[in-house]
Amino acid sequence: VKAVAFDTEGRQLALAARPNSYATLPGGGVEQDLPRTWADTVEVLRELRQAAETGRADDDRWLRRRDGSAFYATGSVTRIVDTGGEVVAFMAIVRDATRLRHAEDECTRLLASERALRADAAQQSAALTAAIDAIPHGVYIGDENGITRCNRPALEMLGAVSLEDLQQRIGELGRKFRVRYERDGPLVEPEDLPYVRALAGERAQLDTWATQASTGRDVFIRGTAAPIVVDGRVVGAVAVNSDITAGLQLEQQRDELARVAVVLAERDEQLRAVFAGVRDYAIYTIDLDGRISSW
Question: Whole-prediction pTM value?
Answer without folding.
Answer: 0.56
